[in-house]
Amino acid sequence: MNRPDWLTVRASAAESTPGVNGDVHGEVHAEVSRRTGGEAGGAVGGAVGGAAGGFGGEVGGLVRELRLRTVCEEAICPNIWDCYSRRTATFLVLGDRCTRACRFCAVRHGRPLPPDPAEPARLVEAARRLGLRHVVITSVTRDDLPDGGAGHFAACVAALKATLPGVTVEVLTPDFRGWPVAVVARSGPDVFAHNIETVPRLYPRVRPGADYSRSLELLRQAAGAGLVTKSGLMVGLGETMEEIEAVLADLRRAGCLLLTVGQYLAPTAGHLPVERYLTPGEFESLRRRALALGFAGVAAGPLVRSSYRAAELLAGARKARNAAAHLPLYAWPTLGRTCLVRDLGRVPYPDFADRQRRAAAARRVGQAPDTLFFAEHDPVLTFGRDGGEDQVLVPPEVLSEKGISLIPADRGGSVTYHGPGQLMIYPVIGLERVGGDVHLHVRRLEEAVIRTLGEWGVQAGRRPGYPGVWVGGTVAGGISGAPGACEAPASVGAAKIAAIGIGVTGGVAFHGVALNLDPDLEAFRLINPCGLRDGAVTSVRAVLQGRAGPGGGAPTRREAMEAFCRHFSELYGLELAWD
């Protein structure tokens, strides 16, 4: 396969494979130079030259002194001096012998030594003395260890975080043979990266020891734990553009937010040959496609490697997340897939609770799309993880006389009442839609309700410290200029008009909102609603009482559903389809 005219390799040069995920890190000997002045990869794609002295030389000397390894030097990466100049480095832990033998990777294969318990301390010392701001930790694959090396990764991250509080840490892990990612997540890495490497059709030839579904599940678990997730893909092994786009969609469904795409370059003549060199235009097209799918940061180019400009990609993701966490809301990028809308009508709460759990389980494994359920329940009191029967103000026989059941619910929050006249809104939705941030999910649901109420002139907002939507009193309004934005009069006591409680399983959120259209407000006197002893509750009809029009101008159930759907669709970036 002839190399393109914009990429030349001299016999003594150096290039590295794009895949560095623990199973994969290349050691090749070739020097890559660019003839197009940066055209080959644009702002994120090019090999970066530089002198071996200065900070780069300091890194090499210190790494040898502390008996550490960096992928940057082991793989003789063409971007090494650029990364070193930015005070970032990728350390290789758990030895230099891999228990797998992927056909695109030049890492040495064999029986590795036991993990070195002193390695985390040496890693900290290197980062401290070099003044590193962003540290990437990767490893060979260690199938010989019961946890695949997860515990060692966690020890490295914990040591860095405890000693160097200002440093950001990215882990680039193997698949741990399916070991739960929580072991690493609890140590607090800023980025959890695992490379998917190639399309599933090529796994038997390219990555015979790996499993495509297992890699996606690893990323899904990390996203569900609230981590910023990242993956890398190498191209030029015989995949089609359609297959690449399918992988990108799979990664987004798994909650992956950051992506690198680079050209595969064979380490030696004995490795898999390059089937095709993608053009700079094709890399740019892939970058744009990935951004359109909802990745928060994408580096794509011939010489892009897994850790290239890692700190910059993280900074971009954080900027987006920070913007999303405050008003005005940021439209966090999503897949743009269809969300089903189902109105179940009147349904007993226990029956729907079971249906909701099954829908969340199906969404978690990719067997069902995001679904927005609407329902109405027979009279029932439910209490979440923060509530209990002590917040019910009447004896059980009174509840029985009124036909009201008392049922525990697998959600956050305290005691609340559900009954006829409430619009129950239950989004079963993957938290990757909001970057794994359940608090942002709550804020968006609140905002959708605030905007919905604003269509009928109901000024609603938030009460600091309490989830849900309130009217009257001093409440923070919605997005400036949006329908429903307000600062309600302080002279009127705040009353709750919509309660919110969320449950999460495997990165999928369920439960949701109880919007009081016209329920029996006397039922709320039976409890401390949502645990608030002074908590007044109101309804849309009560707020609009005395206005002209049928029902005082209050919306019908169908009108309220349609209005909520419009705002939900806008805030979550979803196309809704009524089922």
In short:
This protein is α/β, with parallel strands linked by helices and 579 residues long. The strands form four sheets. Strands 10, 11, 15, 16, 17, 18, 19, 20 and 21 form a nine-stranded mixed β-sheet that branches. Strands 3-4-5-6-7-8-9 form a seven-stranded parallel β-sheet, sandwiched between helices. The chain has a three-stranded mixed β-sheet with strand order 13-12-14, with no helix packed on it.
Report on this structure.
With 579 residues, the protein is of the alpha/beta class. It has two domains: 7-324, TIM Barrel, CATH 3.20.20; 338-457 and 497-542 and 554-578, 2-Layer Sandwich (BirA Bifunctional Protein, domain 2), CATH 3.30.930.10. Helices cover 30% and strands 20% of the residues. Strands 10, 11, 15, 16, 17, 18, 19, 20 and 21 form a nine-stranded mixed sheet that branches. Strands 3-4-5-6-7-8-9 form a seven-stranded parallel sheet, sandwiched between helices. A three-stranded mixed sheet has the order 13-12-14, with no helix packed on it. Strand 12, helix 14 and strand 13 form a beta-alpha-beta unit. Helix 5 packs parallel to helix 6 (150-163), helix 10 runs parallel beside helix 11 and helix 15 (438-454) crosses helix 17 (557-572). The two termini are 51 Å apart.
Shape: elongated
Mean pLDDT: 76
Multimerization status: single chain
**How many β-strands, per DSSP?**
21
User: Which architecture of the largest domain would the CATH scheme give at its second level?
Assistant: Alpha-Beta Barrel
Tally of contiguous helical segments: 17
